[in-house]
Fold this protein.
Amino acid sequence: MILLLFAGQRSSLAESKPLELKWTELAPIIHGHRVELVLKQGLKIKGEAVVVREDSLVMDVKKGSAVIPRTDIRLIKLVRTRGNWGRNLGTTIGVLTGISVGGYVAGTQTHSAGAGIPLFLVMASAVTLAGYHAGRGLDARVTVITIVPE
């Protein structure tokens, strides 16, 4: 079941044709969202879009604010989260699978409670976290934006 979630996650990340926007149309779409910029030099910058100026984009990044010149931007990937059904589904499947797999492995591979209980807890927790992260990937929507001339 977890594999099905990962498969769905990968197929949802498949990029379709980029959305083509003029620079003046960009602000209402990306303002306040997480974005990843692909610059013409090939560098990638991740952060939150703060302000779209006439000649640049201001972003909050890990080290503070960054002002990216408009002419340096090749591509913008806008990441939005829609709902939480994927996280809920992934966590539920992860818990059920983790308990089953952890119980089976702990019961068949150990001969004492001292070794079996920690093994069960680690297995159940790891599979639950994997399910959560797979579900979180299902909730994320990536929109690829290219800037067209005015």
